[in-house]
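SEQUENCE WITH STRUCTURE:
===
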Amino acid sequence: MRTLAAAALLLLATAASAQDKTPPYWASIASGEAMMRTGPGRNYPGTWLYKRRDLPVRVVKTYPNWRMIEDPDGTRGWMLVTLLSDQRTAIVKPGPPRAIHLEASDSSRVRYRAEAGVVGRIDKCAGGWCHIAIGQRHGFIARGDVWGTDTGESLD
């Protein structure tokens, strides 16, 4: 019972911290299913049902308990704040498979390659590189190869 209460408090704290940010900022989809709507309320029609947890989104506008988001394809709409997470993620941009390096350097050994559309969690970005974790694998990807960070943004 205590574990369930602690998990509920953590979820509320995460949603509350997302509400305190000033747009634009990055977030990700927290749920396995998240509905985008035409306006900030459940009475507005749904336009898109996302079924991809951790998909990065850009929050561009806020309204109490709702966020206008932009997805990697440029589609904009409203989503309930509890369906979003502060967890930073990125998606590999279209094109050929992108190298994931051992270190943040082009001369570093390539650990593996990630196909376009692969989503990973990022925790550090600096100097044109982001540390990315895709499942149990991790490494460094060039910032220009992913959507989910701002140019020049430092992420620790």
